[in-house]
Design goal:
heterodimer; B: mainly alpha; 13 helices
């Protein structure tokens, strides 16, 4: 232990580490499946960042017939739709003759972006109200919980269908709707976690010490519920992706010509009969992303005890 | 005490139902312009719109409209659809709904009958041998299946069974008079899709429930006493897992309410959910309202059953302190 703090470690976290009673840092060991999940997740994160830049064509480009002319053949006007994978179109072309690979690369931003913003919104709403219910008066808790139960008991897809029927499908509405729908389950988790912490001894100690409510929320409750909430965020994110993709698949989500993985499956479904890969590739993109997130979450919750898993099932 | 628990749960369900009806009513009344304008379409003149508004009761304040709507729904009058407009005033929704409800019930009924025994069996087997290769195979495949979109499962099945093998048709075409083998063959693809997706959920939840019971102190006691494994599971664990498992089944049936939406669409199965999606696309609000009410009522009833199963099977909840 050095008593002369150098400029780098004046930081309180480092001093805290050197206290004799500092708890050991929690380490999460990932299994092989979890590691594969992390790699796939990083891959998609990179695609979201630079996808449109590395895409060979634009998402709305309908490819020229000339590209498909086989040298030496006399076929001057070949079909451009539902072409099998080749050097020109690495993953084949779709029902309008657009490049599937480019559309997946562009669509990553739409699908993952919308889902991520919606999940974040759900968390902001859910955690804020959930903690308010946990620390607030009994009446506030009662009102919020009943309202939440009512919202929760509408099947999410029905709620979305009714709202989209009334307001039409736009991206902000899609994000807002998904955010509200998934905030209900976040609320339940945040509230029950918050209540658990509220009755703990250390919160009582803090109260006796005379700490204010804000201090208790930010210093005691939030740090204690952050880890389970982070794991749950992953799971919720998967459900949001599936939900938004399902809406797009029904033709009620992201509207053309923007590419989105769910709507890409829908548009190209007729190609399935000709053995085209165009409807399968975007579906696989969704699957790799969601499965990898789930595998990471599974790994983490196995290490943080079964409590979390139980809560997620409930 | 038991009756009090039941009644209070019933009360909560009724309140929820009421809130849901208000939400659906508000949701479908958000649209600028009202049903009268939509019905009249291009023929709308100020006079004809006003006349139709008066006829449909749209000139009354919203809360009165809500009361009238709720009364009508309770009496079984679900209003008039935009479908078949032109000559008259459109078709009564009840007439459109009847065959659709029958179709959806037939589909989900068959799925339930097939999925539940299979998944209870697999879930129990996996829970009885935790950590073995079989358990890991079941856990991994169900995890993968619940994390992929329903439509991927459906697409893959179509690719295998309809395109490559050619056993079943890729799209459901119901004439209405199919029976026996022909009916099964026609419905095979949607049933298979829903069974696979629903089973994965039930298997996972069954496994988790039984494992949860298996880790409780009285099972540990039984193990320490030297009770044979088979007896522990069949006599000690199973009875205590029945309540949670019934809960799981009811929850999954409730989940089917949402699951049919995508599956009916893919196979163009003429069910209630497809009708609702069509209603949304055509902005046929009374129709959407009616379908949403039916789905939500079903959902709430199933959740109520799930809660009841939990309460009835657990003495501590049956006799709250």
């Amino acid at each position: 232990m050095s008593d002369t703090p150098t400029p780098q470690n004046t930081n309180s976290a480092i001093q805290f580490d050197e206290l004799p009673d500092a708890p050991p840092k929690r380490k999460i060991k990932l299994s092989l499946l979890g590691k594969i999940g992390v790699v796939v997740l990083i891959f998609w994160a990179i695609v979201v960042a630079i996808g449109p830049m590395i895409a060979p064509y634009h998402e709305a480009d309908i490819l020229d017939e000339e590209l498909f002319i086989v040298p030496g053949s006399d076929e001057m006007y070949p079909d451009t739709d539902f072409q099998p994978p080749s050097k020109i179109v690495l993953l084949g072309s779709d029902y309008l003759g657009r490049d599937t690979l480019s559309r997946i690369l562009f669509g990553a931003r739409t699908t993952i972006g919308i889902s991520f913003i919606a999940t974040t919104l759900a968390y902001l709403l859910g955690v804020l109200l959930g903690i308010a219910a946990a620390v607030g008066s009994k009446r506030l808790d009662m009102i919020l919980s009943r309202l939440n139960d009512a919202l929760l008991s509408i099947p999410s897809i029905m709620f979305a269908l009714v709202m989209i029927a009334a307001l039409g499908s736009t991206i902000p509405l899609l994000i807002l709707l998904t955010g509200i729908i998934y905030a209900t389950s976040v609320f339940r988790i945040a509230r029950s976690l918050g209540q658990e912490v509220m009755v703990s001894d250390f919160v009582e100690a803090a109260r006796v010490r005379g700490e204010g409510l804000w201090w208790i929320i930010t210093r005691e409750i939030l740090p204690n519920i952050a880890m389970p909430l982070a794991t749950d965020f992953g799971l919720r994110f998967v459900w949001v992706i599936l939900f938004i993709s399902a809406l797009s698949f029904l033709g009620l989500g992201v509207q053309p010509p923007m590419s989105d993985w769910g709507s890409m499956v829908k548009e190209n479904l007729p190609g399935l009969i000709y053995g085209s890969v165009a409807p399968i590739m975007p579906a696989l993109a969704i699957a790799t992303l969601t499965i990898s997130v789930n595998m990471i979450v599974d790994d983490i919750s196995a290490h943080t005890g079964g409590k979390l898993a139980k809560r997620m099932i409930a | 005490m038991l009756w009090r628990a039941l009644l209070s749960r019933l009360g909560i369900s009724l309140v929820t139902l009421w809130v849901v009806s208000v939400l659906i009513f508000i949701g479908t009344n958000l649209l600028p312009g009202d049903v009268a304008q939509i019905i009249l379409g291009q023929m709308a003149t100020p006079e004809s719109t006003a006349a139709l508004r008066a006829k449909l009761g749209l000139d009354k304040p919203p809360y009165l409209q809500y009361v009238v709507w709720l009364q009508n729904v309770a009496m079984g009058d679900l209003g008039i659809s935009k479908a078949g407009l032109g000559a008259g005033l459109g078709t009564p929704i009840v007439e459109i709904l009847e065959p659709r409800i029958f179709n959806t019930l037939r589909l989900t009924g068959l799925v339930t009958v097939i999925a539940i025994p299979i998944s209870l069996f697999l879930g129990l087997i996996a829970a009885m041998h935790p950590g073995t290769r079989l358990d890991r195979a079941v856990t991994f495949s169900t995890l993968s299946l619940i994390s992929v979109p329903d439509f991927l499962v459906a697409t893959m099945l179509v690719l295998i069974f309809a395109v490559f093998l050619g056993w079943f048709p890729a799209i459901v075409y119901l004439r209405g008079d199919e029976t026996g083998w022909v009916l099964i063959k026609t419905l095979a693809m949607p049933i298979l899709t829903l069974v696979i997706v629903a089973s994965s959920q039930i298997i996972r939840m069954t496994r988790a429930t039984v494992l949860n019971v298996m880790s409780s102190p009285y099972i540990e006691m039984a193990i320490l006493k030297g009770v044979p494994r088979k007896r522990i599971i069949l006599r000690h664990a199973l009875f205590n897992a029945v309540g949670p498992i019934v809960n799981v089944i009811a929850l999954n049936l409730a989940w089917l309410v949402g699951g049919v939406v995508v599956v009916e669409q893919i196979f163009s199965y003429p069910g209630l959910a497809k009708l609702m999606v069509e209603g949304v696309l055509m902005r046929d609000l009374p129709l959407v309202q009616a379908c949403a009410m039916i789905f939500c009522v079903t959902y709430i009833v199933l959740i109520f059953i799930a809660d009841m199963a939990t309460i009835l099977s657990n003495p501590r909840l049956r006799h709250p302190k």
